[in-house]
UniProtKB/TrEMBL annotation:
Residues 1-180 are annotated as: Disordered. This is Uncharacterized protein. Residues 255-438 form the VWFD domain. Keywords: Disulfide bond, Glycoprotein, Repeat. Disulfide bonds join C837-C886, C848-C902, C852-C904. It comes from Denticeps clupeoides (denticle herring). It holds the Pfam family VWD. It comes from the Eukaryota. PANTHER family: EXTRACELLULAR MATRIX GLYCOPROTEIN RELATED, MUCIN-5AC-LIKE. Residues 809-910 form the CTCK domain. The keyword Plastid does not apply. Residues 587-656, 694-762 form the VWFC domain.
Length: 916
């Protein structure tokens, strides 16, 4: 195919002659022999390409409500094809003339055999291409009301083609409306050169074609089958979705997955199971990535007395955005937070096509372009996905979303297992690291293991509400059985009684999907009353997408109902990013008061206006009269412009004190005194005086009360608290110095200097502590003591023993010791239990263990046997505190001793008395 130089392609087509015939509803119309269309393409040169086509004879029929209407054939089409660059492409098309025949809507309309179009393509060189086409006999059909009608060809179509910048992240975005391929000469020319013989391909506008041979194609109209009623396995009502070619509609089941309690799951296809995993798992991800979307669930142990887990958080990943919906307090009143990049988000939040809001009971995450709604509450979550975008393309804890429960228990790789609780362990979140998450290595085979026998118990009366007349209106739409069983399980195995309320809450929300709204909380005291913030009211069923002044009527509305706090009747949210309910839309003034559009008001001495075009408040300063001149003569006063007390919006000139303009002070006080600053009434600049510091002063130095003051003449002076009335300082009292004559072991008190007030302790012996008693020596034996420069010191030498030779010992005289048995700190993990309360996790407990030396030796000094006993005991400890969780839901602190260091310490050697 040569290069097509930009130029003008002109095609002239004679208007077709059409006839209409009504065909019986019970017979198929005869197939008419196809005519042939021949196209001759001469040499192509830059310039004008002209194509002449003879008018085909066609018949037109109206197809029942299951097919797509045909695109009307234009009588004359002129196309100018410029160079294709990022910019504008303009196409001009003339309107077609057609006629139609109506066929009964209860039968399949006859389709006349399509004509055979034959195109002859000579060698293509730059020049003019002229094509002559024989008129084929064709039939045209009209599309039903259930499919998207074709777009009528406008006279002029202008399209801007954006440029995709390298490096930007490109994500598949679902089309908001179905699109079709336009039929024009350029498309036909390219299509004929891309397909093999007998190959069937899409031509345009929901029309198929089959390549016969030698550039001859067979046109095959695309017919939509009638809509079939289906039953959704998840109990949800079916919805209408487009097929993959966006030509026909069919019924399908949207993806609805939920989990609650400890925890109970219902997959997209309505299969129920329980899973007690303590890990972060893949709740849902795309089997074939299309929209870069996945959800994780973070399960943790949530009861100190039972081996059960609860969903602590749901993590939603969309493109490069990751938002965690988390309950920070599982054991008490819920504390729901939305977290991004480790920081708590202020709600409501909206960024990059994702919004997060709160209904007080739940966090609601929405992605409108994909019609996704994810909610997370106290101990539960729901996931709403449209089948149009995610049908048959999900995997994880929520299953496959194909209205087939048989393949929901699928592990990574596509293998099915017998139990979804087993399947759930095989879906840990690999890109979210949790060291306590084991990954199964062996896929179980055979029949499911029998469930362990649970201890018998009586469920709380709140569970009986599910099967009572309170929910009777919903029973015909959704069975309460699985919710009742989950409620009973939670009531028997959770110490927190409010957990069973989640089963009632989830069932009530499921009922709201069918338009059944039930006020159930006022029938139980355990589940409690919902307190809403000021300006909001409680509703058991309210829209997840609450209406606001920012709503665009053309944007899709996600029809999902949730329980929570909403604006009162007649009010809506001021904006999507606001929690303020208003009864009229307008602007918010700086005080948060709603102002109507074009409303004028005064604020902060400004004249303000609520502008409708910008939806913002603009203010201008208020104009005031010109104040008169004044003079300020006192030191420190300056002329200032201050608020007029008679008119708070205007100012006047006054004399204002500015201490920075006061003259500097060089006042200095004597030792023991400090300058004190005072400002008399009516003055601006400070005045300084010297006041006592409440200290003693001796020879120009200050002393605090109770301190010793050094003096001469062997006197000892102290600073007292007695005040001298003349100086207002504390008095100094003196007395003769007392000399301490008691010295340490090995020292003696000696009057060494006759002019000194006291003598001093002089060393005369070496002092050695042996077995707790101090011994004095000043010669070598038995303890080496040397005098060096007047100082006595004990010398110590190390005796080097020869290597141990086992052969030199008698066989029975060898004793072995183990180095590892030395006294040291040992560690163990232990669950602390105290007065019926227990720690949630095992606590690291430390203790001392190991052997220490114990011996008996003869002492020459004491002329008797010396017994020495040591034991391994703690030498350094600290107190630590851990929280214990009690069955009544109360948390109590418990303090225990933690050992940091152990050593061998001496102890009494007690001789065991012989038995008589």
């Amino acid at each position: 195919m040569p290069t097509i130089t930009p130029g003008v392609v002109e095609t002239t087509t004679s208007p077709p002659e059409t006839s209409s015939t009504e065909i019986p509803a019970t017979t198929r119309p005869p197939t008419e022999s196809p005519s042939t269309e021949k196209t001759t393409m001469p040499t192509m040169t830059p310039g004008v390409v002209e194509t002449t086509t003879s008018p085909p004879e066609t018949s037109s029929t109206e197809i029942p409500a299951t097919t797509r209407p045909p695109t009307e054939s234009p009588s004359t089409e002129k196309t100018t094809t410029p160079t294709i660059t990022p910019g504008v492409v303009e196409t001009t098309t003339s309107p077609p003339e057609t006629s139609s025949t109506e066929i009964p809507a209860t039968t399949r309309p006859p389709t006349e055999s399509p004509s055979t179009e034959k195109t002859t393509m000579p060698t293509m060189t730059p020049g003019v291409v002229e094509t002559t086409t024989s008129p084929p006999e064709t039939s045209s059909t009209e599309i039903p009301a259930t499919t998207r009608p074709p777009t009528e060809s406008p006279s002029t179509e202008k399209t801007t083609t954006p440029t995709i910048t390298p490096g930007e992240e490109e994500t598949t975005t679902p089309p908001e409306t179905p699109t079709t391929t336009p039929c024009n000469a350029t498309n036909f020319y390219l299509i004929f050169h891309l397909h093999q013989q007998n190959e069937t391909f899409w031509l345009c506008n929901c029309t198929l074609a089959r390549c016969i041979e030698d550039n001859i194609i067979e046109i095959i109209p695309y017919e939509c089958p009638p809509l079939q009623n289906i039953t959704c396995a998840n109990g949800m009502p079916p919805v209408e979705v487009w097929d993959e070619n966006y030509c026909c509609k069919r019924h399908a089941c949207d993806c609805y997955c939920e989990g609650w309690g400890d925890p109970h799951y219902m997959t997209f296809d309505g299969l129920s199971y329980s899973h007690q995993g303590n890990c972060t798992y893949v709740l849902m991800e795309e089997t074939v990535p299309k929209y870069n979307f996945k959800i994780y669930v973070d399960n943790v142990r949530c009861d100190p007395t039972e081996d059960v887990s609860c969903p602590r958080a749901v993590i939603v990943s969309f493109n490069s955005l990751v938002i965690t919906l988390k309950n920070q307090n599982l054991m008490g009143p819920s504390k729901l937070e939305a977290i991004k990049d480790g920081k708590t988000l202020p709600l409501p939040y909206a960024m990059n096509g994702v919004s997060v809001s709160s209904s007080s009971l739940k966090l609601i995450l929405k992605i409108p372009q994909l019609q996704i709604v994810v909610t997370f509450g106290i101990i539960g979550f729901t996931v709403h996905l449209p089948y149009q975008f995610f049908g048959g393309n999900t995997q994880g804890h929520c299953g496959t979303c194909n209205n087939n429960q048989a393949d929901d228990c699928m592990i990574p790789g596509g293998q099915l297992v017998h139990d979804c609780a087993v399947m759930a362990d095989f879906w840990p979140a690999k890109d979210i690291y949790r060291p306590d998450c084991p990954v199964p290595t062996v896929v179980p085979t055979g029949s499911p293991k029998p469930q362990p026998t649970m201890k018998p118990c009586n469920s709380d009366s709140a569970c009986d509400l599910l099967t009572s007349s309170l929910f009777a209106e919903c029973h015909e739409f959704v069975s309460p059985d699985r919710f009742y069983q989950s409620c009973v399980f939670d009531s028997c195995h959770m110490s927190n009684p409010t957990v069973e309320c989640t089963s009632l809450q989830v069932y009530a929300e499921t009922c709201s999907e069918f338009g059944v709204c039930i006020y159930w909380r006022n029938h139980t005291t355990m589940c409690g009353k919902i307190d809403c913030s000021p300006g909001k009211v409680y509703k058991p069923c309210g829209p997840a997408s609450q209406p606001s002044c920012d709503d665009n009527p053309t944007e899709p509305v996600l029809n999902v109902m949730v329980e929570g706090c909403f604006c009162p009747e007649g009010q809506i949210l001021f904006s999507k990013e606001s929690t303020l309910c208003v009864d009229k839309c307008g602007c918010l003034d700086p005080e948060g008061i709603v102002r109507e559009f074009n409303e004028r008001f005064e604020y902060n001495c400004q004249d303000c206006l609520c502008e409708e075009t910008t939806k913002t408040v603009t203010c201008k300063p208020k104009v005031c009269s010109n104040p008169g001149a004044i003079s300020c003569n006192e030191p420190g006063f300056i002329i200032a412009n201050e608020t007029d007390p008679d008119d708070s919006c205007c100012s006047k000139l006054t004399c204002r004190c500015d201490s920075r303009t006061c003259p500097p002070s060089d006042m200095k006080c004597n030792v023991g005194y400090t300058p004190v600053v005072t400002v008399p009434d009516g003055k601006c600049c400070p005045e300084y005086t010297c006041e006592s510091k409440k200290v003693c002063v001796h020879k120009g130095l200050e002393y605090e009360p109770g301190t010793t003051i050094p003096v001469v003449d062997c006197q000892e002076c102290n600073c007292t608290m007695e005040v001298d009335p003349k100086s207002n300082l504390f008095k100094v009292r003196c007395g003769w110095m007392s000399c301490p004559e008691t010295c340490e072991h090995g020292y003696e008190y000696v009057d060494t200097d006759p002019y000194a007030c006291c003598g001093q302790c002089v060393q005369t012996h070496c002092a050695v502590s042996i077995n707790g008693s101090v011994q004095l020596t000043n010669h070598h034996p038995p303890i080496p003591c040397l005098k060096v420069d007047g100082t006595f010191m004990v010398t110590k030498s190390k005796i080097q023993c020869p290597p141990f030779q086992q052969s030199n010992c008698q066989p029975v005289s060898i004793q072995h010791t183990t180095k590892d048995q030395a006294c040291k700190v040992e560690t163990m993990l232990k669950t602390i239990t105290y007065k019926g309360c227990q720690s949630v996790e095992e606590v690291e407990m430390t203790y001392c263990e190991g052997s220490c030396n114990t011996y008996s030796k003869y002492s020459e000094l004491e002329a008797s046997m010396k017994h020495t006993c040591t034991c391994c005991r703690e030498s350094r400890t600290s107190n630590r505190t851990v929280d214990l969780f009690c069955l009544n839901g109360i948390t109590t602190p418990y303090t225990y001793t933690h050992v940091h260091q152990c050593q061998c310490s001496e102890t009494d050697c007690r001789t065991r008395r012989p038995l008589v």
